[in-house]
Amino acid sequence: MKVILLASATLCAIACALSGSVAAQSALRRLPDGHPDLQGLWMKSAGGFQGLFIGSLDGTNFAAGGRGGRGDGRGAGRGPAVAQPAYEYTPEAEAERKDRLRRGYEDPEARCHLPGVPRALDQPGGLYPVQIIQDEKSVALLHEAMHDVRIIPTDNSPHPKNYWAWDGDSRGRWEGDTLVVDVSNFNGRTWLDMAANFVDENEHVVERFTLLDADTILYEATVTDPTVFVKPVQMRFTLKRVPAEQQILEYSCLEGERSLQHYTEEDGGKKRREK
Amino acid sequence: MKATIVAGLLAMVTAAGAAQTVNRPSSPGRLWDGKTPDFRGIWRARGTAFTNVEGHPAERGIAPSKSIVVDPPDGKIPYRPEALAQREMNYRARATLDPSLKCFQAGVPRATYLPTPLQILQSPGNFAIVYQENHAFRVFQPEGRPHFDNADWWMGDTRYRWEGDTLVADVAALTDQVWLDAAGNFHSTDVHVVERYRMTSLDTLEYEARIEDPAVYLRPWTLRVVLDRVKQPGARILEDECLEDANGVRRHVSPNDPRSLLKSDYSRWKTPSQK
C-alpha cells in the first residue's frame, strides 16, 4: 500500500510537471512523433557571444572598444537573451590564448575550415541563416555560413571511435520538448570565435534547442574542456524565424582568405617587403 | 517434418516479398503526410562517370565506363564546334585545370555522380541534398518563385515540383567555373538544368539531367545515372574538407585520420596530457 501511494505520488509529480509544460507549449507545432517541429529557416539574433570582431592585425578589437577590449564579450549589439560566456582558462591555456590573440589571422575559419560547435551557430548575428530539416530519426542543420552541415541523429546512438572532425560528432535526444545534443570527437583545432578563445580535442559540448514560441528557438550550449577551462563555459542566445519569402543562399569560402598572413610582420610580411 | 514446414513457409514468405518488389518496382515509401514519396537515405552513384560522362576506358585504377549521355543516342555531347575545341583543350590540361582540384563545390549535375555519397533529407514540404564532397548542400525551393537573377553559384538555384512520384528540379544561376566531369566537359553561365529523380526500386534512385545551354551545345542533351542506397548500418555522411595546405597542394582531410590535418593549422598547443 505504501509502495502504491509512493508510486502514485511520483506519478503525480511527473504528470503535474508535464501538464504544466504541456499547457504552456500546446500551441507549438509538432511532428507526428510528438516532438516540437524545429523546422524552418532561422537567424541568430544580433549580438551573440562575441560581437562582430572588427579589429586590426595586431589583435585590437575596435568593436569592443579598442585595445584590451577583446574576448570579454562586450561587443556590439548585445541582446537581452544573450548570455555572455565567461572563459576561465587554466594558467597554461591563458598563456596560449594570449599567444593566439597575437595571431588572429590563424583563426581556422579564416582558412575556410568548418567553424566547429558552438561556433557553427554563433556566427555574426543577423547575417547567415540556418535551415533545419527534421524527421523522426534526425535533425539536420544546414548552415549558410561556411556551408556547414550537421546531421544529428536523435536515436541515442553512441559517438563513433576513430573519428575526429572540426564539427565533432553530434548525437541528439529529446528531453521533454528540448532537443539535447551531445557533441564530442573534436579534432582539437577549433577556435570558438575570432578572438582566439579556443578549445582542444578534449572539448565536449552539450547543446539545448528549445522552441519558445512559433518563431523563437532558445539555443544554449555548455562547453567543457578540462585541459583548457577550469569551469564549463555557458552560452545562450535566440534564433528567430526568417520570413517565409526569404531563402537560404549559397556561401563559398575560397583560397583568397589565406593571404591575410602575408601582410603581417610575424609571418613573412617583412621579408616580402624587403624583396 | 516440422523443419520442412518452417522452411516451406519461409520460402513462401520470401517469394511473396520478391513478387511484391517485382510488381511494384517504382513505388517508393511515403512520408508521414501519406503522399510525398520518401527518397530519404544515403545514396551513391553507380559507375565511374565522374571521370568522363561520355565514357572512358579503364585508367589508373578506375574502372571503365560507358557514356551516361542517353540523348543524343550516340552518347556524345552535342557541342558547337568552337565549344568542342574548348573541351579538347580542357581535356588536355585536365590534370591542372579541373576545378575540383581547386576544392570548389562540384556543381550540378557533377555532384550527383561523384565517387562520394550524398544524403537526401526530407520532410513534407522540405527537400535538401547534402553531398559529402566538400560539405556542399542544396536546399530545394518549391516552384512558384522565379530563379535568382544575376547569381552564379557553385550549386545553382533550385526550384522543384512533384510529377507523380518523380521529383523534377529546375536549376539555374550556375557558375561557369565548374566542369561536368574530370574530362573537361563544360557549360556556360547560361546553362539551365532540369533534373528528374525517380525511385526505380526501394534501393535504386534514377537520376536524369537535361542540360540546355545554347551558347555551348547545338541542342539540349540528357545524362542518366543510377544511385544505389548505402545500406551498411551506421553509414553516415562524413565531414569532408578539401583545402590548400602550406605547400599550395589542395587535398581532402579525413576525419578518420588526425594526421591528415594540415600542418599549417594551429598546432603549437599541446594539451598537458601530451607533454
Helix-strand layout with pairing:
The complex is a heterodimer of chains A (275) and B (275).
Chain A: H1 2-25, E1 40-44, H2 91-101, E2 129-134, E3 138-143, E4 149-153, E5 169-175, E6 178-184, E7 204-213, E8 216-224, E9 233-241, H3 269-274
Antiparallel strand pairs in A: 1-2, 1-9, 2-3, 3-4, 5-6, 6-7, 7-8, 8-9
Chain B: H1 2-23, E1 41-45, E2 69-71, H2 81-92, H3 94-97, E3 118-123, E4 126-131, E5 136-142, E6 157-163, E7 166-172, E8 192-201, E9 204-212, E10 221-229, E11 241-244, E12 250-253
Parallel strand pairs in B: 5-6
Antiparallel strand pairs in B: 1-3, 1-10, 2-10, 3-4, 4-5, 6-7, 7-8, 8-9, 9-10, 11-12
| Helical segment count of chain B | 3
Structural class of chain B: alpha+beta
Strand content of chain B: 25-35%
- Element string of chain A (H = helix, E = strand): HEHEEEEEEEEH
In terms of quaternary structure, the protein is heterodimer
Q: What is the terminal separation of chain A in angstroms?
A: 91 Å
Rg calc of chain A: 21 Å
Note the total helix count of chain A: 3
Runs of chain A with pLDDT <50, length 5+? 1-23, 61-81, 257-275
Unreliable stretches of chain B, pLDDT < 50, 5 or more residues?
Answer: 1-24
Strands of chain A, total number:
9
Major sheet strand order of chain B? 1-3-4-5-6-7-8-9-10
| Percent of residues in beta strands of chain A | 15-25%
- Biggest pleated sheet of chain B: 9 strands, mixed, barrel
